[in-house]
Each structure stands twice: as C-alpha cells, then as structure tokens.
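> forwarded from #structure-qc
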C-alpha cells in the first residue's frame, strides 16, 4: 500500500500544476480532503463552492461550514438548480447525471467568470466500481477528478483526512437525499424534507450510519447490522416510529438486511441500463 505521504505529495503536486481550482465542496470527507490539499497547494487561488438544494442534507451543510472555517478558505454556496430539470424530478436511474450536469454547469461558469482554470470534484477510485452517472456529466464539462486520476481510494482518503487534521475524517458517506427515493417515483421537496428530518432524528439517537428509504407513506429504515438489536428495544422502537411519523410517514419498517450502499440500485440490471456505466 502506498504511503500517505506519497499520495499526499502526488495530490498536492497535481493540484499545484492546475494553478487555480474551484472545488465542488459537499462537506463530505472526499471533497474535504480535496479542498485541504488544494489549499495547501494553491493558497488563495482556491474557491470552495457548495451546491445547495432540498436534496442536500442539513448535516452536510453544517460539516461544510465547519471544515471551510477550519481551513480558512474562500467558501460560497449557490443553488444547484437540479429541480429546474424535469428529467431530474422524474427520477430515472441516471438521475445523478442530470443533477451533476446542473451543478457542474453552474460551477464551470463561475470558474470562467473568476478566471479559475479548473473545476475539481471528489469522486474516488472506488466509485468506478459502482453506478455513477454523475461522472459522465463531469467528463462532458471538463471537470477533473484528481482522486480518480491518481488512483486514490476511499481508505486512502480517510488516511489523508487524518493527516490533514480534518474533523470529519471518519464521517459516514452521505449521498444526496434523492437516493432514498425509488427510481421512477417523483422527487419532491416535501419527500426530501421528511427523509432529512427522519434521518436527523435517528442520528440524534446514536445511529451514525442510517438511511430512511421513502416508499410513499412507508419509511424503510436501514441501520448497520450491529445496531439491529437497538432497534428492537421497545423504547428505541417507539422513538424511531415517532420520529418518522412526526416527519410525515404513516408506516415505519426496519430493513432486515441492514444498511448497504446503493440499495436502490439493486432493482437495476446493468445489461438493460448500459447508460449507467
């Protein structure tokens, strides 16, 4: 395994060659490491931009504020605008393409206005093994993915985050809230709001990694396998049900398979949806 120091040096050198970057900054560990490295490589020639919308979890915005403040970088937010696209709202399997196309289009325009040579984003080498339509949008618009270019995976990113002293080095993954809605079901701000409210309450109960999958009036809760016993405790069970019902759900279920990434992709067949690769 390559050393953290070696990968950190390679990353900083790659960013330094770009002379100036606008970082697509979500507040997650990947984009936080990218921002920290860019700041070290380029100093004030870095702007961090967080695209906000109803699909952006509230706790990720809090993380973005905390990290950008610690790094003392120029950080701004902008409305990512994906809800303006009916293709996004209809929630097809390549939904992320339309979301990222909207965001990256705005970021590349902002970079051009500020005379910043490159827009960079935090996808990593592990993402190449999953369904990531957003990478196609990045490629079309010339947005660079330094971690993929350098073969840096998630495990290395977490080690780099520790090396940079980032507070969110062990932050669980947190994709956009729309990923909790089954493909083909309309995405609405109301659905996203009840997902966010439910998950926020469950994290407040001590569940670090949790998903509330939205099936209309039914909430399907995913927690880590080691947390299953906690969910079966009467007191916790009542709190979970109460939190989800307060957010707007009628029925609340526990997924016995537990939390897993890309759960909504399990209904897809890559042979039938080659555009996702």
């Amino acid at each position: 395994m390559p050393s953290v120091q070696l990968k950190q040096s390679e990353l900083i050198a790659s960013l330094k060659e770009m002379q100036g970057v606008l970082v697509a900054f979500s507040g997650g560990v990947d984009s936080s490491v990218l921002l920290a490295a860019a700041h070290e490589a380029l100093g004030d020639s870095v702007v961090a931009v967080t695209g906000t919308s109803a699909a952006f979890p509230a706790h990720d915005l809090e993380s973005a504020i905390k990290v950008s403040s610690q790094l003392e970088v120029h950080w701004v937010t902008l409305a990512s605008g994906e809800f303006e696209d009916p293709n996004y709202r209809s929630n097809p399997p390549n939904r992320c393409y339309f979301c990222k196309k909207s965001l990256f289009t705005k970021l590349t325009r902002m970079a051009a206005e500020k005379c910043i040579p490159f827009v960079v984003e935090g996808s990593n080498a592990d993402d190449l093994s999953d369904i990531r339509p957003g990478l196609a949008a990045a490629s079309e618009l010339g947005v660079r993915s330094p971690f993929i270019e350098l073969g840096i995976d998630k495990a290395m990113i977490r080690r780099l985050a520790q090396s940079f002293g980032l507070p969110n080095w062990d932050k669980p993954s947190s994709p956009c809230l729309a990923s909790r809605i089954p493909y083909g079901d309309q995405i609405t701000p109301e659905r996203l709001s009840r997902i966010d409210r439910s998950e926020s309450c469950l994290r407040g109960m001590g569940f670090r990694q949790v998903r509330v999958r939205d099936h209309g009036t039914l909430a399907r809760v995913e927690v880590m396998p080691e947390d299953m016993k906690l969910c079966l405790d009467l007191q916790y069970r009542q709190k979970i049900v109460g939190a989800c019902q307060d957010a707007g759900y009628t029925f609340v279920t526990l997924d016995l398979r537990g939390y897993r990434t890309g759960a909504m992709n399990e209904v897809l067949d890559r042979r039938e949806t080659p555009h996702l690769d």
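QC bot note: The chain has eleven helices and seven strands. The chain has a mean pLDDT of 93.
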